[in-house]
Amino acid sequence: MDAAALLLLALATVAVAFGWLLAGPAAGRLKKRGRMPPGSMGLPLIGESLRIISAYKTPNPEPFIDERVARYGSVFTTHVFGERTVFSVDPAFNRFLLSNEGRDVGCSYPSSITTLLGKHSLLLSHGAEHKRLHSLTLTRLGRPASPPLLAHIERLLVSIEPGPWSESLRREYVKLIDGFFSIRFPFAHLLPFTTYGKALKARKTVAGALREVVRKRIEEIGENGGTNGEDDRKKDMVEELLGAEGGSFSEEEIVDFCLSLLIAGYETTSTLMTATIKFLTETPAALAELKEEHDNIRGMKGKNQPLEWSDYKSMPFSQCIINETLRVANIISGVFRRANTDLHYKDYIIPKGCKIFASFRGMHLNDEHYENARTFDPWRWKINNKLQNAVGANIFTPFGGGPRLCPGYELARVVVCIFLHHLVTRFSWEATEEDRLVFFPTTRTLKGFPITLRQRPESVA
Ligand code: HEM
């Protein structure tokens, strides 16, 4: 046997070994009992990761999903990010995945992400602990109607300059977020110059700052019962957690909890705001209608009057803009789950342990569900009950669903509505540079969509 033949034999052996590793014993088991949804595994080890990454780095990643749906159907198998993954753009199957979280499927994050989030984070908790933390969050965030909270959001949005404390915390927070989407080399935690190493350090700083807040609040409660001298003041989240369930939350639990809210709520809401401005800039008729809505509200209130819940409820076109931005931009393009048991779907079996991606994007941008689905058209949401019907048919899930439904879904809308109100009643703007949306590692505009703001001469605010 010459050297070339030996090399071929070696390569063939390696290929067979890879094939076995990739297919794994579960696939062998399945051959006997049923088959996985069809699909393509791409290259050995890297699978189709490079294809999905390069697609999602463009403003139009749709062909990645479109081609596979055309070839294999709305539930197909691929191999991304080191693992065989079932990809679903099927509304019924996605509903099953969302509503069965914690039973037939569970959400699972790699250990590197667990470390950044903290072990008591809401996003990582399961079972009874998750139920308890989720309902506590929903009770608190699902009540943005409370006048003090509304006033606080407005104050934060329009009148508070970032101080040195919040600015330095913000910088650390950005490093922490970068860590979630970095490539993790082995032992990256020991390498402080890598993105992941820097993120670990930033986590310590942010958690330390939050711990200080918690300790200060504990001291205040000890001194004056937590009222801070203002008897009618409503409790904030930290105070509520300290008092919840007979004070059973530890300091570490409260810090992890607050950190998970920061991580889940900050980037998503600010991206929604930026994407909204981008779409409004590109759709002048929508901007004109939005201005009219907010000028009318301001006209009835008079200058400098704070917004009230009834004002928020009189912003139907703003809600159309938010729905459409959520639908087209897909701030969260879908969620990962892992099968806790063999799942039966149509003629297929998805084996226990298999990773599954419920794609929201694939449903939101499907012409079967929305006419001219890939066009920004906020007026489509003006049709009676359009939102309820789309949510009911499970073709509009920007905030997920089931036990892990985003507890910040109403808060995000309130924040963006108040922001839009002050933006359009006080300013006009134009884009300073060409910019575009990309979707990997997260949905964002490449340059942050820079604009030049001008005070409106006829400002009514
Ligand atoms: C545009 C804004 C937002 C979008 C698109 C969004 C989207 C989502 C989605 C899709 C999930 C479900 C994740 C899953 O099923 O695995 C989720 C969960 C979550 N969101 Fe949001 N979110 C937004 C804003 C917020 C805000 C403002 C907060 C809080 C301040 C927040 C806090 C959370 C938390 C804590 C979870 C985890 C819930 C759990 O695991 O039980 N989100 N979000």
UniProtKB/TrEMBL annotation:
It comes from the Eukaryota. It is a single-pass membrane protein. Its main location: membrane. One of its GO terms (biological process) is brassinosteroid biosynthetic process. The keyword Iron applies. Its cofactor is heme. Residues 1-17 form the signal peptide. CDD domains: CYP90-like (cd11043). It is found in: Membrane. InterPro entries: Cyt_P450 (IPR001128), Cyt_P450_CS (IPR017972). One of its GO terms (cellular component) is membrane. Keywords: Heme, Iron, Membrane, Metal-binding, Monooxygenase, Oxidoreductase, Signal, Transmembrane, Transmembrane helix. It holds the Pfam family p450. The keyword Repeat does not apply. GO terms for molecular function: heme binding; iron ion binding; monooxygenase activity; oxidoreductase activity, acting on paired donors, with incorporation or reduction of molecular oxygen. This is Cytochrome P450.
